[in-house]
Every structure is written in structure tokens, then in C-alpha cells.
Design goal:
The protein is 37% helix and 24% strand. It has 217 residues and is an alpha/beta fold.
């Protein structure tokens, strides 16, 4: 069976500077990997290339055997929507939408009916202890609630790969614990999980830790 993710010698060049220098990394189904390293070493840039948000200057991102960056823009956007769940440090919720609508939106875009998308959203919100907040506008959620909604949104299409960039960086310890449990749920659902973190507790719970320094893994 192909790896869920295979990064082959990824390079991201900005001007004369290589932010990422020949990074290679494999992830299997249900594997959790923590990516650690000092600020500014290229972790977020690597995650954005893997998540099909930033084109590599060189190298390949292979998802389940397919060279993702060789696809045309429309197909690549569909792959990103169907295969990848992205959790940002800032939750990036649509503030005018409810928690339920935010979670349901990717499923609706992928082709589910509105009712099916909302049913999937309700199940995830209940799993993360947010059933009572499903109709609350995103603007009224606490920071911890909003981040759990963002994780639910990342999981609603049952992605093969979940990428999380400092998901507990702006949370207090209690909220961070809840978010860590939510990320563990992603692996329990069979997704490969790659988490950029400075939180040693998250790194300790990963099956493997990879360190990045000066753009190199």
C-alpha cells in the first residue's frame, strides 16, 4: 500500500535563500508525527508545501502514490479538499457562520447535500463536546472552542492526512489538553497526522518526532 504522504527532497527558495532545503519525510496511515524546531527554521513553509498551499521550488509531494504538484490547479484543489485537513494556529473560522456551518462547509463543497454535511458536522461537534454550541456564531466562541471547531472542520471530509500548525500555541493549558484529545481522535479515525509544535506534551504523544533546523530535517 502506498504511503499516505511521501515528501521527496522538497526545496522552497525565496530569492537567493532556501527556506526549506531538501526535506524528505514519509507518513503512514494513522501515524502521528510531531515536527519541532526553532522559530523561523522552515516548519510552516514545509507544512504549506505538503498541504498544497505553496508550490515547492524543487522536489515532490506524493499523496497515496500521486505526485500532487503535477496535477492541474482544479484537480489539485479537489485533492486538497478531499484528502487534506488543515488546522492553523489562528482558527480561520468564518465569523458570520455558526460552529455547525463552519464544520459543514467543506463537506458541502465536496458534494454532500446540505443535510448530509450538517449531519456529519453535528457528529463531530458532539464528539468534541460542542453540541450545545453548534448554533453559536464563530465570533462568540471562546478561543478553545473555536480551535476545536477548526479541528472538526479539518476532519469532516475524513481526510487521509491532517496537518496542524501550532494548534495549541494560543491556548491555555486546559484548552490545549482538549485540543490534544481532538488531534488524537484524528489518528483514531485513521488519518496520518503531522503537527508542527513547540508543545512538548504534543510531541511526547506523537509516535515519532522529527526536528527541523535551518531548513533541513
Amino acid at each position: 500500500m502506498p504511503k499516505v504522504l511521501r515528501c521527496e527532497s522538497l526545496v522552497r527558495r525565496l530569492g537567493a535563500h532556501d527556506v526549506v532545503r531538501g526535506a524528505s519525510l514519509d507518513l503512514d496511515e494513522a501515524e502521528a508525527v510531531a515536527l519541532v524546531g526553532p522559530s523561523g527554521c522552515g516548519k510552516t513553509t514545509l507544512l504549506q508545501m505538503i498541504g498544497l498551499l505553496d508550490r515547492p521550488s524543487a522536489g515532490r509531494v506524493v499523496l497515496a502514490g500521486h505526485d500532487a504538484w503535477s496535477l492541474d490547479d482544479a484537480v489539485r484543489a479537489e485533492v486538497r479538499l478531499a484528502w487534506i485537513g488543515f488546522v492553523f494556529q489562528q482558527n480561520n473560522l468564518v465569523e458570520a457562520l455558526s460552529a455547525r456551518e463552519n464544520v459543514a462547509l467543506p463537506a458541502w463543497r465536496l458534494g454532500s447535500s446540505r443535510r448530509e454535511a450538517e449531519r456529519a458536522a453535528d457528529a463531530l461537534l458532539e464528539r468534541f463536546g460542542l453540541a450545545a454550541r453548534r448554533d453559536a456564531p464563530a465570533s462568540e466562541l471562546s478561543v478553545g472552542e473555536a480551535q476545536r471547531v477548526a479541528i472538526a472542520r479539518a476532519l469532516v471530509n475524513r481526510p487521509r492526512l491532517v496537518l496542524a500548525d501550532e494548534p495549541t500555541g494560543s491556548l491555555d493549558s486546559a484548552s490545549a489538553d482538549v485540543v490534544m484529545e481532538a488531534l488524537a481522535a484524528a489518528s483514531a479515525l485513521g488519518a496520518a497526522l503531522l503537527v508542527v509544535t513547540h508543545d512538548l506534551r504534543i510531541a511526547a504523544r506523537a509516535g515519532r518526532t522529527v526536528e527541523m533546523r535551518d531548513g533541513r530535517l
